[in-house]
Specification:
The chain is α+β, with helices and mostly antiparallel strands. The chain has a single domain, classed as Nuclear Transport Factor 2, Chain: A. The chain is built from 9 helices and 13 strands. The strands form 4 sheets. Strands 2-1-6-5-4-3 form a 6-stranded mixed sheet. Helix 6 packs antiparallel against helix 7. The chain is globular. The N and C termini lie far apart (90 Å).
Length: 364
């Protein structure tokens, strides 16, 4: 017979069987019962450790999965861009081929007219342009980026026309996209004549978010994101007035920032972007601020749209030289060119932070 744990006690009044049974389980546990308790505790501990291990494993697996989802979203956006190009190339008129790509409230800068707003107004402006009046159009994206919630993104690349002045047929473009129920549509679009020279249409690495989020219709949060972006844009411009464009770009730009104004291709990276800015410049010859903007509900990607204004007396000197100061220009040296800036919050979570109003920047 297995031994029992006992302790001596004075004789007491006889208790009910149920009471003594309950009392014996408290002060006189059987070894078999203790062993069962230990086995149960060990099993529970094992299950807890296994669950903890599983959660840790899932945490490590989650980041690659999110990266794969984001990359797939960029691939889908690039595919949509290419599909619109293929359809436009077959259209009887360039404006008719481009119009289906634009969102209802899309924005496009037009030299001499400023910002043209709305799909129909953009189509009319294209029909009035000698470069887009005849022939056909096609383009090739070379890079894309996506917001953490997958609701907004950008592409940029090279565009070719077959009509108009042969010297102005080779172009560059930037498109900022929003995802609609019917698919991706362009919310902001800019194209300009590129300098002569060979370019590569090889696809560049995508711009991917650092976290994942679900799309949300949170009007107050989105409005706060837009105010944050506008404030960063204004701070960028203000800083440029104090230290010059070169220094301000290095403070507010991301390592993979892009500028499309000069050269045959795109200037990618802060060194390439600031190479043509005067090193001794201590004050910017231009200023700017946000006039319109879009920001994803995840708060990590947005586009700031506005107009670059030339400062005097630098404006007069630039006009006399035949080009806007600092290399930030348009085809009309005395005009103030509208600008787009695709911006990404430098963050690993849903709270936006814009140390670079030009991060993930498509143009300036």
């Amino acid at each position: 017979m297995a031994p029992r744990w006992t302790r001596s006690a004075p004789k007491r009044k006889r208790r009910k069987k149920s009471d003594s049974h309950y009392f014996s389980h408290l002060i006189e546990p059987q070894p078999a019962f203790v062993e069962a308790l230990l086995r149960g505790a060990a099993a529970r501990l094992h299950r807890m450790l296994m669950l903890r291990f599983l959660l840790i494993a899932l945490a490590f697996l989650g980041a690659p999965a999110r990266a794969q989802d984001a990359r797939a979203a960029v691939d889908a956006l690039l595919a949509a861009d290419r599909a619109f190009s293929a359809a436009a190339a077959r259209a009887p008129a360039i404006a008719d081929g481009l119009a289906p790509m634009f969102d209802a409230e899309a924005v496009m800068p037009v030299p001499g007219r400023g910002l043209v707003i709305g799909r129909d107004a953009i189509a009319a402006a294209l029909r009035a342009s000698p470069a887009f009046r005849e022939g056909s159009v096609a383009w090739t994206p070379v890079r894309g980026g996506i917001s953490a919630d997958g609701s907004q993104g950008f592409t940029f690349g090279f565009l070719e026309l077959t009509g108009g002045d042969p010297a102005r047929r080779g172009r560059k473009y930037l498109a900022y996209w929003v995802r609609r129920p019917e698919g991706w549509r362009v919310a902001a679009w800019r194209q300009l004549v590129r300098a002569p020279g060979a370019v590569s249409t090889a696809l560049l690495a995508p711009s991917l978010p650092g976290f994942a989020a679900r799309p949300a219709q949170r009007a107050r949060a989105i409005a706060a994101h837009r105010r944050s972006l506008a404030a960063a844009e204004r701070a960028f411009s203000d800083r440029a007035q104090q230290v010059g464009l070169r220094a301000a770009f290095r403070e507010y730009g991301r390592a993979d920032a892009m500028n499309m104004y000069e050269g045959a291709g795109f200037a990618i990276g802060l060194d390439a972007i600031t190479a043509h800015f005067p090193a001794a410049e201590t004050a910017s010859p231009v200023r700017w601020e946000t006039e319109r903007s879009l920001v994803a509900s995840s708060g990590d990607l947005g586009v700031s749209i506005g107009t670059i204004h030339l400062n005097a007396p630098a404006a007069a000197a630039a006009a006399a030289a035949g080009r806007p100061p600092g290399g930030c220009g348009s085809s009309a040296p005395t005009a103030s060119p509208p600008h787009y800036r695709c911006s990404s919050a430098s963050a690993t979570g849903p709270t936006p932070r814009w140390p670079a109003a030009s991060s993930r920047k498509a143009t300036w």
